Amino acid sequence: MNKEKFKSGFVGLFGRTNVGKSTLINKIINQKVVITSEKSQTTRSRTNCIYTTDNMQIIFVDCPGFFKPRRLLEKRLNSIIYKVLADVDIILVMVDISSGIGTGDYYAFNSLKDRQQPKILLLNKIDLISKIQLNQQRKKLKGFDFFENVISISAKTGENVEKLLKILTGKLPEGPQYFPDEMVTDQPVAQMIAEIVREKLFGNLSQEIPYSINVEVEKIKKSVNRSGEKIIKVDCNIYTERKSQKAIIIGKSGGMLKKIGKQARLELEDFLDCKVFLEMWVKVVKDWTKKESYLNKFGYLNY
């Protein structure tokens, strides 16, 4: 009997912002590899998330959500999307079916309909609606017959996720194993730390402030105390655009920053499996989201 040939490939996950793309990846990988938030524009970079079995390896590529850009930062985020579209073997498109298929989803559909790769549509959050509502929304898909499969899923509960993986396996080309078995993301540790801190900022601040925030890890220092316990000290900068935003991030008597720091430190200790000392400084760079020099510095490159 011939051994089953190994299959591998890159699967891009697209859709408008805040439809559950990162939640799905975390569910498939079975651990947190990308941050999530109810606020839009949470994902700001290309992240390769790796799912490996005995006979296949899927590299899920999480990237920013589709939206019509207004600021330079948003234009840079959109350029990441189109770079990913050019690179992947399979295109997954996700919609939040509980909110209804709308203009933002149609914008995403029309942005990728002419791509040559196989395209699969995911109707996410079916746990939040009835079957009647789901069928009503499906009627809005008339005219978008370029999707080879339409799958109703719940990224939160895992419903039909195994079905999705089976379909992806069937579409993957034969190929090499790109990453080791134990590797679940190719993000550098510093980037993972920055993302965890940014997630806590998103979770604790009002609606508008997070879009003007960037987190940069300045230094990571490893040491061992007298008891032989490993310790990691992390220094990071939180950038925002206005002094008024800085005051809100810090909070009264530093209360908000302490709260965010505690939440981030606890998750970092779990992630790094050691004691963590986290220090954060809030810095104001006026209109950094509109300045090419800072966008380049923070890694928002124009592809």
Keywords:
303 residues; alpha/beta; Rossmann fold; 2 domains; six-stranded mixed beta sheet; 9 helices
What does this structure look like?
The protein has 303 residues and is an alpha/beta fold. The chain folds into 2 domains: 7-171, Rossmann fold, CATH 3.40.50; 189-297, K homology (KH) domain (GMP Synthetase, Chain A, domain 3), CATH 3.30.300.20. It contains 9 helices and 9 strands. It has a 6-stranded mixed β-sheet, with helices on both faces. Strands 7-8-9 form a 3-stranded mixed β-sheet. Strand 4 (90-96), helix 3 (103-112) and strand 5 (119-124) form a beta-alpha-beta unit. The longest helix has 18 residues, at 255-272. The mean pLDDT is 88.
Question: In CATH's first tier, which class of the largest domain applies?
Answer: Alpha Beta
Report the oligomer: single chain
Second rung of CATH, namely the architecture of the largest domain: 3-Layer(aba) Sandwich
For this structure, what is the CATH homologous superfamily of the largest domain?
A: P-loop containing nucleotide triphosphate hydrolases
Total number of strands: 9
Shape: globular
Which sequence of strands runs across the widest sheet? Answer: 2-3-1-4-5-6
Given the structure, what is the number of helices? 9
Series of H and E elements: EHEEHEHEHEHHEEHHEH
End-to-end CA span: 46 Å
CATH fold description of the largest domain: Rossmann fold
Total domain count: 2
Low-confidence stretches: none
Rg over CA atoms, rounded to whole Å, is: 20 Å
SS class: alpha/beta
Largest sheet: 6 strands, mixed
Summarize the structure.
The chain is an alpha/beta fold and 303 residues long.
